[in-house]
Write a sequence for this structure.
């Protein structure tokens, strides 16, 4: 959950974007934006749709898709494709900066870490570029899957 200041700021940014691009400012679009900013961590289109239903917001899937496209376009939502053949995941762009994604290549589980593996000093060393935020993807095998891999190997050895 992000604070009121960020929620108001993103709403103002969205209004500016919709006005500039001559898109309609519907209450549904604002409800979707506000709902997204109440979600911690990642979501996909299905989990967003379901959590909106749970919160008693009735929106059609096409409105949801269409609004997500607008939110991506104006930079209020970030899209991730963590692995080939997995559903795209999304997260809010503000109030959520500087975290890394640890992705298991076996089960596809995604964890977030804010260990800040890159320091402010390292970011400043990037030449001719001002960093706004960063997001790293670290691929590997989670402990559950590496256990499963070992078990499988043992079974093969015994044969
Ligand atoms: Zn795994
Ligand atoms: Zn994330």
């Amino acid at each position: 959950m992000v604070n009121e200041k960020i929620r108001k700021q993103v709403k103002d940014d969205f209004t500016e974007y919709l006005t500039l691009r001559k898109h309609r400012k519907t209450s549904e679009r604002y409800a979707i934006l506000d709902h997204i900013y109440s979600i911690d961590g990642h979501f996909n289109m299905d989990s967003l749709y379901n959590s909106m239903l749970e919160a008693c917001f009735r929106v059609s899937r096409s409105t949801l898709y269409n609004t997500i496209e607008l939110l991506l376009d104006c930079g209020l939502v970030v899209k991730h494709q963590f692995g080939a053949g997995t559903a795209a995941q999304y997260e809010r762009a503000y109030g959520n900066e500087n975290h890394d994604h640890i992705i298991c290549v076996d089960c596809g589980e995604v964890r977030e870490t804010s260990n800040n593996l890159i320091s402010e000093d390292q970011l400043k060393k990037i030449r001719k570029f001002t960093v706004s935020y960063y997001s790293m993807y670290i691929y590997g095998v989670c402990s559950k899957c590496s256990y499963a891999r070992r078990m499988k190997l043992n079974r093969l050895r015994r044969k």
About this structure: The domain at 97-159 is CATH 3.30.1490.190 (Dna Ligase; domain 1). The CA atoms of residues 20 and 51 lie 30 Å apart.
